[in-house]
Amino acid sequence: MKTLFKNARLIDPVALSQDMGALLVEDGKITATYPDVPDIEVAEVVDCDGKCLAPGIIDIGVKVSEPGERHKESFRSAGRAAAAGGVTTIVTRPDTLPAIDTPEILEFVERRAQQDAPVHVLPMAALTKGRDGREMTEIGFLQDAGAVAFSDADRVISDTKVFARALTYARSLDALVVGHVQEPGLSTGAAVTSGKFASLRGLPGVSAMAERMALDRDISLLEMTGAKYHVDQITTARALPTLERAKRNGLDVTAGIGVHHLTLNELDVADYRTFFKLKPPLRSEDDRMAVVQALADGQIDIISSMHTPQDEESKRLPYQEAASGAVGLETLLPAALRLVHEGHIDLPRLFRALSLNPARRLGLEAGRLLDGSTADLILFDPDKPFVMDRTKLLSKSKNTPFDGARLEGKVLGTWVSGKKVFG
Amino acid sequence: MSFRAKHLLGIEHLAPDEISTLLDLADQYANKPTDVRHRSVLAGMTQINMFFENSTRTQASFELAGKRLGADVMNMAMQASSIKKGETLIDTALTLNAMHPDLLIMRHPHSGAVDLLAQKVNAAVLNAGDGLHEHPTQALLDALTIRRAKGRLHRLSVAICGDVAHSRVARSNIILLGKMENRVRLIAPPTLMPAGINEFGCEVFDNMEEGLQDVDVVMMLRLQKERMDGGFIPSEREYFHRYGLDAAKLAFAKPDAIVMHPGPMNRGVEIDGTIADDINRSVIQTQVEMGVAVRMAAMDLLAQNLRAARKTDVMA
Q1: Which positions in chain B touch A205 (Cβ < 8 Å)?
Q2: Which of A138, A342, B197, B298 has its Cβ near the most Cβ atoms within 10 Å?
Q3: How large is the angle between the packed helices A240-248 and A285-297, nearest 10 degrees?
Q4: Domain A55-367+385-405 belongs to what architecture?
Q5: Which 3-state string (H, E, C) describes B111-130?
Q6: Beta strands in A129-278 (DSSP E)
Q7: Nearest to A332 by CA among A396, A388, A252
Q8: Which residues in chain A are contacts of B108 at CB distance < 8 A?
């Protein structure tokens, strides 16, 4: 079966172009692109009406709360939220209850995802058992069972010897390790980034330097072990030179950032608004501008939503006691488009970070508009304004910091392997 | 009336004219603290004191202030109560709200807990100290004490000395004294200074002799040992040697400088006992006295605003 998307602004993160054209999908694959409407027989025509057609977003680090906390987010709700947000592949985190640290739990997750989620679900598995930082998981078996990367999510393996061995072992299997960088001693108990705002609010803070200290350690370990490594979030200016040096030295390292750290700063917490409590905490405006620049330069490779569902009860607490994290599957694109509207980055480069780079990092035939890649596509209007209403989110949890915010950008349609799942 | 606030959550939200209004009224209460005519001010109103942290002085001060104004005062033993049974702060607040209190006085170990309470209840909320955030009535009573001793509350040089990092009293005082256009000097070992202190608009010193030079007011802070994770200072005796207020260090301040302490004092740790007891320099007992007056004034003004708001509600 052939579907032709015509009159589309084709957002091509490989050629870094955004020209008008048409795109042909055949049996779930992209088979051709054309500058004009081609004269061919097709079963279905989608008139894009001049709107943007881009490769679907690949979101690394999504928390689906199965197993353990299905009331916060299930594969069905996360999958529907993803489709509505233009996310065609979610790469799930292993910080569930229990942690995804055995092939048996991984199979459960894959089965649930298969049944309920309309988008691709690729699971990550824990790097250490129970995410306790003591013994490595069965990386080989887990990889055979479909784990695409290994991570202890927001926990740092503080025993450097354990981490070094896990990296060495992962290297032998060419497995990707996803790290989280926060020097554990300094960051204990912190709720915000230390500085004037933290002091005025009387909240325990962590120095922005804690990120660089942990990154320095991890980069040194990569030099030792040669492992394949992605750091989930780089959020501070001070960590950037370390990252740049590591890349220049040819280490196999990439870096990500959550969309909230690109679009919000510590002052947004204002009078203890717990929906802005994230891990790592929001940073200063100087840091935000530095990471936005690093993203535009390609120094930071990947944007993700860091989707972390939390129920109302865990957020309706004094700031220090409240849970961290925000949902983001449905706000990832409109929030990221703020960077486009503010002139920091153009659309093809944005989709390089949202789609192409994550696909490359995970070795997927997706994230691009080239012949032969999977037809994961989104059609969106980047300029459509709306006021975010959290009660309308499809996620079971509604903890978004963008509630009431004016955003621009609406997903009009989402296709996964050529099949329409939203719009 | 130039006092517009619905709640007293922090000094940060008060304008200078609101601070002056409150202090003027407190002055009147201080002059005649036990006048029986005050008893009609909060007559028929219910005041609930919710202290989630141990406090003898502040709780007693609020209780006395409420009783002198004729309020029905209730003390909830929050330490032992439903919190231990897993009830959340908001549920506790809603339960209390259903009892229709007019004034809720809260102290809580977490910064911002009082803001959270204020969002959920109809009563006027007074912050009696939240975490490391603010302790507004302490700053106001300090301001009244200074104003009565010095005859003014502007263009003074005030030194705040000691554990600034862990002190909500220091934060509220820094904000209040800044709003009233005073010079604030902070003196502490760098480990007891909060992060970002250089952006506060204060002068920062780690040496007592330099910091106390020619100040009008010396405000000592309690060294909050119970808040220490360990390792902020080498020892109590080294701390007293370098940062404890004694006659030699006080000699660097102006000859008529006053000495203040929010209490309870650790004699021989942050302040020498003879200085604390020197009636010519120490105004520590006056502070306690002003505390009741300031709390009477704060509750009086908030109750007036509460009555006005209820009247508008009825008319609407």
Answers
A1: 195
A2: B298
A3: 20
A4: Alpha-Beta Barrel (3.20)
A5: CCHHHHHHHHCCCEEEEEEE
A6: 149-151, 176-179, 192-193, 205-206, 228-231, 253-258
A7: A388
A8: 318
Query: Alpha carbon A63 to chain centroid distance?
Result: 10
From A328, A294, A293, select the one nearest A308 (Cα to Cα). A328
Tell me whether 0.85 is exceeded by the ipTM: yes
Reduced DSSP (H G I as helix, E B as strand, rest coil) percent helix, strand, coil of chain B, to 5? 45, 15, 40
Chain B nearest C-alpha distance from A235 (Å): 19
Q: How many residues does chain B have?
A: 316
pLDDT digits (tens, 9 = 90+) for A295-350: 999 999 999 999 999 999 999 999 999 999 999 999 999 999 999 999 999 999 99
pLDDT of residue B237: 85
Query: Rounded to whole angstroms, how far apart are CA atoms A56 and A354?
Result: 8
Are A207 and B195 in contact (CB < 8 Å)? yes
Q: Pick the residue from chain A with its C-alpha nearest to B12.
A: A200
Determine whether the interchain pair A316/B111 forms a contact, defined as Cβ–Cβ distance below 8 Å: no
Calpha distance A276→B160 (Å, rounded)? 33
> What's the DSSP call for residue A368?
S
B89 contacts in A (CB within 8 Å)?
317-318
- C-alpha distances (whole Å) from A165 to each of A127, A137, A219, A229 are 11, 11, 14, 14
Instruction: For A165-201, give the DSSP string.
Output: HHHHHHHHTT-EEEE----HHHHTT--EESSHHHHHH
Query: Inter-chain contact B132–A205, Cβ cutoff 8 Å?
Result: no
Contact A271 B113 (CB under 8 A): no
CB A196 within 8 A of CB B204: no
Task: Give the model's pLDDT for residue B1.
Answer: 60
Residue type (1 letter), B44:
G
Residues of chain B scoring pLDDT < 50: none
Q: Residue B85: its pLDDT value, please?
A: 62
pTM score of the predicted model: 0.92
Tokens of B118: 């204020």
